[in-house]
Amino acid sequence: MRWRNAALPLLIFAALALAPFVGFGQGHSLTLLARAMIFGMAAISLSLLVGGAGLVSLGHAALLGVGAYAVVVLDHARVTEALVVMPVAIGVAALFALLTGAVAIRTSGVHFIMITLAFGQMAFFTASSLAIFGGDDGYTLYGRLELGGSRLLENRLFFHFACLALLAGTWLLVEALLRSRFGRVLRAARENETRARAVGFAPYPFRLAAYVIAGAIAGLAGVMLANSAEFVAPAYLTWQRSGDLLFMVILGGLAGPHGALMGALAFVLIEEWLSHLTEHWRLIFGPLLILCVFFMRDGIAGLLRRG
Amino acid sequence: MNTTLLLVQALNGLQFGVLLFLVAAGLTLVFGVMDFINLAHGVQYMVGAYLGAALAAMTGSFWLGLLLALPAALVFGLLLEWLVFRHLYARDHLSQVLATFGVILFLNEGVKAVFGAAPLQMPVPEALSGGVPIMEGLLYPTYRLAILAAGLLSAGLLWFLVERTRAGMLVRAGASNAPMLGALGVDVNRLFMLVFGFGAMLAGFAGVMAAPILSVEPGMGDNLLILAFVVIVIGGIGSVRGAFIAALLVGLVETIGRAMLPDLMRLMLDPSAARQTGAALASMLVYVVMAVILAVRPAGLFPVRR
């Protein structure tokens, strides 16, 4: 069944590439698709942790937020060159993941969930305290990043394809990581830590590396999210957002990064559809989530495999 | 910062601490006995506050509202257990986190749909309005002292129930080894339900008590929930005693930090920046305390022996 793991994402990428030319080219649809693709990146990075390493993080939105706030800080200093901002944002997010991960990964199970939540809350409160960047109210960017001095990212179509390229790159990277020796050690330690240790692999450095990689990807997603909205607020870092990201991963299925990809797209589209239907769309969304947990144990990917 | 102000803040902190304890106690019991992460415990506090405010408005009396809200919160908790939670006990923590997150989304939106997004008011009862002179020239609101007393009383009652009664013994046995308890002929599912309903009622009680001094609004349970999780992780998961001490600690750290840090910051920053930075640092303080305690004692202050 392995070909499906690659065929499905390729199909989705092709559909996303065609979307602007088959009736989804207006501003609103493109913004929505960009949002879906950006959350797709974040969800794929989270699936490396949850599905690959068995680390259930309830603080992933903080990493996204660190990336977004890196854009804000540099924007405030009038640094808007993507070739500078992106590496810096990725570096800062990776560093944040390294520092918090070094502590969090010492714990496991419930304590890991709680400590990632605690670090996420710390980041959230830090963001709300940054008075010069708007505090609780958030910060409106002067504009999107420049790419090599040109304002290409302002072009809707270019931005769409930039998001698509990054999404595809993320999927490829995580898929390759999970298939590598690195990924096999992660999975072995998830399945049975004692045995992994017995054959000579201490899980800690592998898990930490996975955490840092996921953090770097989430940081990049944060950069794109900030640019898509041209606005950043502490609301990006709430624990509820981390919960949303976890839902995307589970909705899609834990079998691999293609699950998270489908989960994120489905999540954003369902959210959009329901919010058009009724103001109180969460009244439908909440039970939907519960039903997914009850009846769709392998997520959308599982449904497709069976079907 | 003079002693009077410090005393007031310490009382506020203790009062917040006992409210936190009422929420955390149910959470830690549910967690300890059933190994079940219930993110929706915070909305049970919110539901309690809404039930209290609505019933008090309907009956025109705080006391009737309180009296009716408690069984209503209990029934509501049992209903949730029957509908959702009991299907999750055998599942992994990830599923529990997600499904109970779904319950939060639903209920937060539900109260918004029923009561509107604007905060509800619940008046302080006549008998407890006014203040008590606790020092020369210092009146402290009677109602806040009443919360403190009610919280301490509930904590004492809970301690008695858990440590000195047969049901409490079963709960403790369930916390250390639920399958063994089941093998010995105890109906573990009924015990789970009992613990669950009781926890929901405690959270609801905290909600009703807090309603007159805090605003009753959608999402009011979310932040408290996170703090309650911090409390049970610091205290040691499953330990009621640990939850009590940790709740008071978190309540004091949070409240006194919030009052003092902005002043401390003013020594370094201009007033408006100091206020914002100080408030944020104060919010962060409890998480720093938690991270430090977890780094030193990974199982919390009072780990339950297994």
TrEMBL record, chain A:
It holds the Pfam family BPD_transp_2. It is a multi-pass membrane protein. It comes from the Bacteria. It is found in: Cell membrane. The keyword Transmembrane applies. The keyword Glycoprotein does not apply. The chain crosses the membrane at residues 37-70, 82-105, 111-135, 156-174, 208-233, 245-270, 282-304. Its main location: membrane. Keywords: Cell membrane, Membrane, Transmembrane, Transmembrane helix. This is Branched-chain amino acid ABC transporter permease. It comes from Sabulicella glaciei.
From TrEMBL, chain B:
It is a multi-pass membrane protein. Keywords: Amino-acid transport, Cell membrane, Membrane, Transmembrane, Transmembrane helix, Transport. It comes from Sabulicella glaciei. Its main location: membrane. The chain crosses the membrane at residues 6-29, 36-56, 62-85, 97-122, 142-162, 192-214, 226-253, 273-296. Pfam families: BPD_transp_2. It is found in: Cell membrane. Belongs to the binding-protein-dependent transport system permease family. LivHM subfamily. InterPro entries: ABC_transp_permease, BCAA_transport_permease. The keyword Membrane applies. The keyword Cell membrane applies. This is Branched-chain amino acid ABC transporter permease.
